[in-house]
Amino acid sequence: MALFNTKVDPKANKLTLAIDIGGTKMAVGLVDADGNASHVDRTPSPANQRGDAMWDALNRLLDKVLDDAGNPEITGVGVGCAGPMIWPEGVVSPTNIVGWREFPLRRKLKERFPGIPVRLHNDAICMAIAENWKGAAAGHQNALGMVVSTGVGGGLIVGGRLVDGGFGNAGHIGHIVIDPEGPACRCGGRGCLEAISRGPATVAWAVEEGWKPHNSSDPLDAKTLAADAHEGDEIAIAAYRRAGWAVGVGLASCAALLDLDVAVIGGGLVQAGDILMAPMKQAFDEHAGMTFVKRMKIVPAELDQLAGVIGAAALFAEDDRYWSAGD
Ligand SMILES: [Zn+2]
Asked: Ligand 1 centre and the CA of 128: distance in Å?
């Protein structure tokens, strides 16, 4: 009689401490080898403060999550962080986190967790690999994951593997050019997808066209704009149509370049639903010519708020597919 199960999968007990850092909030959780997340907690990012505010807030959250979980054994620390960054060194300078300029996040975390490997990638890449591992792109060998939010980001899986690019920045769909005569982009370019479709740009366009929130106490943001669009506000509808149109045009180009099976769309603007997704699909259909381009499916993300931590954990749990940089 066996008192102990000797056939325990050696991977089953592996627990990754997973971290997702953005300009609005940061999340920390524990993720097992099967992608199950637990003890996920969040805190607002003090992204507009200088100095050590971000690092201190992150450490408080790490302490809290590890305490709440009873300080379990951790076999890896996975991180998704807003870019740009120098990869795989993990030296980050996120556009929307002013206190971090060439901040050596990966090295700092290695010092915080001695002897435990730390792996870090772009937050949009973590979203893409999470959706490929456990979400809407599961089972597909060729997928684009993208986020339409304060910024527009993405990550690419081609031939079943994450495409890193030379410096870890492949999949930056937010900065492909949609309209050469279009608005200036904060990257330094002009007419980028992000400059047209990101939430603040969509709101700014609507304001310029004369939109005012129906409820004057509501903030001038993408959520209010979506609510007004759903009430039939024509400028708000046109603003979302413009944002969705640009994404659809960009997707047709990506599908042609990469022969993709699926594009998974997440991020705050997608909460608006069909007022964004319908013009997106229409623009894609209009611009997708060849049969292999047309075949790409456009689907909403499934993992939502958990995508960041699950993707960060995938840098360990599925490292043959998603981590190419060694330890
Ligand atoms: Zn740009």
From this structure: 20
